[in-house]
Amino acid sequence: MRISNLRKSSFIDYPGLLSAVVFTQGCNLRCCYCHNPHLIGKHVDGLITADEVLSFLQTRRQKLQGVVITGGEPSLQQGLVAFVQAVKELGFKVKLDTNGTKSDVIQTLLAQDLLDYVALDIKAPWQRYEQIVGTACDTKSIQRTLSLLEDGTVPYELRTTVADDVLSAEDIKDMCTSTKGKHYLQRCRPDNVLRPDIVQKKTELPLEQLAQEYSTKQKIICVR
Questions:
Q1: Which domains occur in the chain, in start order?
Q2: Per-residue confidence of the chain (224 residues) as pLDDT tens digits?
Q3: Which three-class secondary structure string do you get for the chain?
């Protein structure tokens, strides 16, 4: 596990639970609006070991309820399954934030009952994915991850970051009407993004109006 940072407590990263947040290092996408560009590359000074994180969690078993594993992209980490097993053995619930590109890893975690909540990023309509994420991308694998969640029993949410220079109202309609479950539209903040030359202004699309228009009994859309 390549862990770059540990947030020792958070009220906002795991719905309803006080949690620690583990940030993994390295991502296989290059989204122009990425708010954690320092987590994309694999090389960084001051990495934290998995044992250090587990030792900390051992001391917080009576104070924290959950652990969020985010990044970067956690499913790229070779030691992820073993790490999650160790976290679960300490009695914590585990939330995974993922871009869904490694559906085989997600499937393994779900099959072993190691996840209690999943947040899946949906970056764009499938036909525009590689344009938005800035690199070659296996959208079929992301769709498999989505199907695992939609057909499974583990609570999940979908998340889409909306930048006016990147996604249109039509793109949002495409994404929101082709999936099920709770879907959060997140307004992009143009500060500290990977590609400030592309993302230059705050989101001005009427997201609340779009969320209301496309919400159904099977699809709940919210704005963050």
A1: 3-223 (3.20.20.70)
A2: 999 999 999 999 999 999 999 999 999 999 989 988 889 987 766 689 999 999 999 999 999 999 999 999 999 999 999 999 999 999 999 999 999 999 999 999 999 999 999 999 999 999 999 999 999 999 999 999 999 999 999 999 999 999 877 899 999 999 998 999 999 999 888 788 888 888 877 677 899 999 999 998 888 999 98
A3: CCEEEEEEEECCCCCCCCEEEEEECCCCCCCCCCCCHHHCCCCCCCCECHHHHHHHHHCCCCCCCEEEEECCCHHHCCCHHHHHHHHHHCCCEEEEEECCCCHHHHHHHHHCCCCCEEEEECCCCHHHHHHHHCCCCCHHHHHHHHHHHHCCCCCEEEEEEECCCCCCHHHHHHHHCCCCEEEEEEECCCCCCCCCCCCCCCCCCCHHHHHHHHCCCCEEEEEC
